[in-house]
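Appendix C reproduces, verbatim, an entry submitted by the partner laboratory led by Prof. M.T., so that reviewers can inspect both the input and the predicted structure.
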Amino acid sequence: MAIVKLKKLTFCGLISEKSTVLEKLQQLGGTHLIPLKEDGLTPAELAQSRQAENAGKALKYLKRCANKRRQVHNTKDFDLDGVINAVLTIQSGMRTLSDKRDALQKRIKEIEPWGDFRLPEDGLRGLNLWFYIVPERLMKQMWTVDLTWQVVHKDNLYSYVVVIAGQEPPASSMPVARTHTGKVPLSRLKDELNQIELTLQDLQAERESLTRWIALLEANLAETANRCELWLAHSLTLDSDALFMIQAWAPEEQLAVFERFAKQQRLALMISDPEAGDTPPTLLKNPEELASGEDIVHFYQTPGYFGWDPSVAVFFSFALFFAMILSDAGYAALFMLLLAGKWRALGQSRKGLRLRMLSMVTLAASLVWGVMIGSYFGYGPAPDSPLETLKLLDINDFDAMMRLSIFVGVAHIALANGVMAYHLWGKKTAFVPVGWLAIVIGGFMIWQVSGPHQHLIQQLGYGALAVGCLFLLMFSSERTVVKPRDWLWVILDGFKSLTGLTEIFGNVLSYMRLFALGLAGASLALTFNQFAEQIYHAVPGAGLLLSILVLLVGHVLNLALCVMSGVVHGLRLNYIEFYKWSVSDEGYPFKPFSKKGVGND
């Protein structure tokens, strides 16, 4: 588990060979291009670079069409750019017309009770019509209004009142606010709605007609992406009349490959380390069995290049947290059966393989944890059964489970600070995570300790707290001490760092959600079981069917809540609590400039 070391490569060659060099560099792959122009892309270049994204959108839109035409496989009459533009134009037009149709339908529904009327073009000799929808219970107030008005429509709930007046009646004089009917007649609105419906049908027919190109779009999607990336690469180079130059980040272990490439293409090549001010991309490298941790990490925040790779720690901690929140071996076994059914399908792609490994480890941890607490769809194991001997914890023992949850939190945050201290070792600031490590462990020793050596362990805990606070006080500042008064600023920085004591205390307590959510899921499963049993005994005959229905609905609902809680809170404890103390800088992912094709993820 590491962040791959990168080197900066600078290629320089003849401008006449630029296209050939870039095509071969794309075919070789493995580089992250560095833009050398400060003015960015021109509108034409930006449009070309987005064509691959547009192709994906067009393909997805055509695939969602209910009625599809017979596929065309002959490329003779196939215009890729024309099809993409036509599909996106239809999508945009249908979206606009659908919004307008919805607004018209709402408008027609609002003014339909007033009927189809047209306001006089020359007015009513200075008078105007004001429209009000008055609830029946407020109609008595209308008789006190000193205005000319008429009820033009009535239903069970409302009276539709038209007031004739030169100015809008004061709001205080009317029982309700005025209704805005507009000047467009109902018949014209309905005609406009009908025309929109016809246009939408025409656009839908065009969309269905374009579905014949789905197969060719899929076949050319990778080619379009490659072409767009190549076009973008052309815009990233620094060109002169005779020469061009392009820079890229590349893994240190592959330097020999690029040296051979430069020699074959007759290019000048300069290799250098990242310099001060450089922000190299982050390329994570882990064993393929644990690589799904990279996907979890990239989902929230890519670590900086000069930081460390938390993906393996996040991989296993997420599996543990999910298991503690699910807290049921029966649920875990059910998910394992579903995973077995999808096993072969998930093995068809690299991302699928990663997801399969993460799911397998997470469900295995959930099964082991469920057996340890003795929960099987909310039921406990029978006395004197083999499963009873495997039950090591009682989820209803609040004190024990609370201590265990806090221990997990202390271990997780201690790991974060330990790794951070190792990464910073050699710098003065490395003592800051060491201080937090001592504080979190010392506080746990003071709170948790019991037994014959309680006094000694407590004294060690107080000592760890004192050492931790001293480290924070003395080493939190990066100021250079030149004058005696500089120590004052160092101490003030230390006191500022000490304000994080409440934060780390709150972060540790946040891990109590593992126990709380696990207990909630187990209690809900037990409640549904008891409810089903009561129905079975209370309703003869049909009680069996009703109890089965309650069990199915109840456990499906509980299972959905447990999975959602396991994913959300399992990730939250990593992204918020763990990252807070271990990942300081945010980076951006390494995006290889390489050809994409079938089988590439």
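Residues 420 and 582 are 5 Å apart (CA to CA). Additional entries are available on request from the coordinating office.
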